[in-house]
From TrEMBL:
Species annotation: Holothuria leucospilota (Black long sea cucumber)
Binding sites annotated in the UniProt record for Zn(2+): C245, C330, C331
Top-level taxon in the UniProt lineage: Eukaryota
Hcy-binding domain: residues covered: 37-345
Protein name as it appears in the record: Betaine--homocysteine S-methyltransferase 1
Higher taxonomy: Eukaryota, Metazoa, Echinodermata, Eleutherozoa, Echinozoa
Amino acid sequence: MVSVVRTSLRLKSNFPSSLLRVAAHFSSSSANRQDAKRGLLERLANGPVIGDGSFVITLEKRGYVEAGAWTPEAVLQYPEAVKQLHREFLRAGSDVMQTFTFYSSDDKLCLSGDNLDKTETINCENLNNVACDLAKEVANEGDALVAGGISPVPGYVEEKGKEFVMSEFNKQMKVFKEKGVDFVLAEFFAHIEETEWAIEAMRQLDIPIACSMRIGPAGDLSGVTPQECAVRMAKAGADVVGINCNYDPFICLDTMKMMKEALEEAGITSCHLMAQPVGWHTHELRDDVRGYTALPEFPFSMEPRLLTRTDASKFAREAFNLGVRYIGGCCGFEPYHIRAIAEELAPERGVFPPGKDKSEGYASLKKSVFKRQWERGSRQYWEDLIPAAGREKVKLLAQLDESE
Ligand SMILES: [Zn+2]
């Protein structure tokens, strides 16, 4: 409490009056926030909820995930690395610690070359158990919720049938029930039928259900439009519907607009909207159902496409204005991008990110000993800037091939 008050006071010299009101609100309401953890739906009804960002891609860059397999064995092999990333998102302002259980079904783990001889210990049950513990430990260091995450299982596209796919989902549901996660989140689904099965599995838990597909304006891999996907997710029982991964924030928001209009036309008003796009610019993929992994730069040369934090702020504002209330990121979204979102929406949320003591906004550049940085101490400077790549040779857009 003492450090919160000190932070609030320090902000007075650098932030506009609207944010000072936020600081005052934060100091006075901290005690209440400690008393009871509000649930997802209650939070969404009261304002934006900030998701977390990139795990599998970021942990690959840090040396804890194998490229190609993109599976989460690090939960068991390097738990401290996973916990550290959770902590960075918490400090950046995430309200949700999503279990690092992407691609953690037994049939996916078995496909990972790294795991072929380790299934005795590295399996769905063990991995999900520990992933829940790691997420919960860090969530309890702040005011965050724990989301049990599920993703597509290879058995669906291998046409092993609904019974097999449901049995893979159910192994995760069993763990999430035992661990008492706050809500469940299905993400990265590419076929609406598998998405509906995932929602059916999640309904057993009787806790809020969030669900997002990795689709753009062209729809899912079965040719179903975003409008139909949104309505079917809602009718299947999802409380929060939307999009994650595959496309940049601005393509994602165009697709979210299509989803929102379809939900309204269908008379569905009870669903909240969520958007967690990738942290790179993917302009040339607007009509390409393959998403960002079709880019020739994926996965080892994506950096020139990286969002700036000004891009992240713009995304947060446009998402909020559209009516999206669960706002976060997916692959490529680093903790500092999430911090930019949390700071942008601080007036609406009534709270700054915990790491605010080291982030006083653009104005902190005026503390520099170099005069040339002083003029950059305003939001306008960064909004007007068109960043350079700093390379002699640079392409504006990639040539895409047609391979799957
Ligand atoms: Zn992703």
